[in-house]
Amino acid sequence: MENSYLRVGTTYYKIVYRPTISGEKSRVLLRWDKSTISYDEGKDYLSTIPKYEGFCCIPDHINYKQVINGFYNEYSPISHSISSAEYSADEIEKKIPNSLHFIKHIFGEQYELGLDYIKLLYEKPTQMLPILCLVSEERSTGKSTFIKWLKKIFEDNLTYVKGDSFGSQFNADWANKLLIAVDEVFFAKKEITERLKFLSTTNKDKLEAKGKDRIEVDFFAKFILCSNNETDFIKIDNNEIRFWVRKIPPIKTENTEFLKSLQSEVPLFLQYLFNRKYHTSKSSRMWFKPTLLRTNALKRLMFQNNNELERKMIESFYELFESVPEKKSIEFVPQDILNTIQRLFNDRDWTRNDVRKILKNNWGLQPQSQTLTYSKVYLNIDGDYCVTNNTGRYYSISKNTISQKFDEFDEFDERHIQSADNQ
User: Fold this and answer.
1) How far is CA 30 from the centre of its chain?
2) Domains and CATH numbers, the chain
3) Residue 11 in 3-state DSSP?
4) Is 97 exposed, middle or buried (0-12, 13-18, 19+ CB in 10 A)?
5) Cα separation of 125 and 76, whole Å?
6) Count H helices, E strands: the chain?
7) How far apart are CA 186 and CA 183, in angstroms?
8) Tens-digit pLDDT profile for residues 332-351
9) What is the pLDDT of residues 346-360, one digit of tens each?
């Protein structure tokens, strides 16, 4: 029987089981005062409390050990044990229809990769894995249910965090977890993306809690991001290989008891994973070969991310034409459109040279060969569009051209997906 108290180093703790809304209990270690233990249990009781040199965090779901070389393992054991009943593979499959159906719904044509992903989480918890991103603009797709299901499987080793947690210096609440889930994610800052990328491929991190010194710890967490924004919930570039992005279709028939059905199948589902051979072999530090994870959803995200300035230029020109409808074409220099972007989007990440490259390389435009006077349309500090004369080696673009480009961006051109396939 588990002792209610323990001493780690010179500090006493009490093991408590905190009730949850679902009716289940969560095992928690709370710091407990030595004098309170003596008062409650008697002075002689202190000598019976097990003592440990310190904490460690060693994840294992199959051969879990609470104590390792005199250190107390902070990683939480899961309550599910593999069924001892002898079932054939076909028999087990028939007993876990909801689990397998749900994997097919989430991973689609990558069904076998999805099973490998969860098998790796269960059998090889220290293996680095890609950042799994589940996206869909539609509701009732099962993204949140998938995370809740993993929570039922891995219990206290999965935690939910807010997106801004990665910008905070304090990480003690999630640094020793197996899975870190972020729902409704939107990372506008590239610094957060870089932090995520670093954490997904490191085996060490600095754990920091309020009022305590930072300490280096083993880091093995995997990230799952869910978003209703398919094309710009995070900033990534065309060479990114650490993200696995899947667009999740809506569930046709909603079943309010589906999560309970999944939970009831967990022991046999783990038995199924344990018996099943891996469909893939380790081909990269994140196990999967990067080309296997290059989904259309990932390509779409890359395209939108890496054409952000072009999209903002088009929207800025569109606004200019809407505000001066009598104009069939607009004359401008790169600084003019850059100023408009800064005013409209409060975005100062770009330079005139960035704008000039898109005008010449993407749109095939050339400036006048010499400095001339042109009619400049601009957005003033009051938010009004004005027209004035200016001089420069100006470009010219028609209203029809901008309308066409606006439509192309609005309906994502599948040619860019094909282009990405050929890279």
Assistant:
1) 30
2) 5-73 (no CATH), 89-305 (3.40.50.300), 307-421 (no CATH)
3) strand
4) exposed
5) 12
6) 14, 18
7) 9
8) 999 999 999 988 888 777 89
9) 877 789 998 999 999
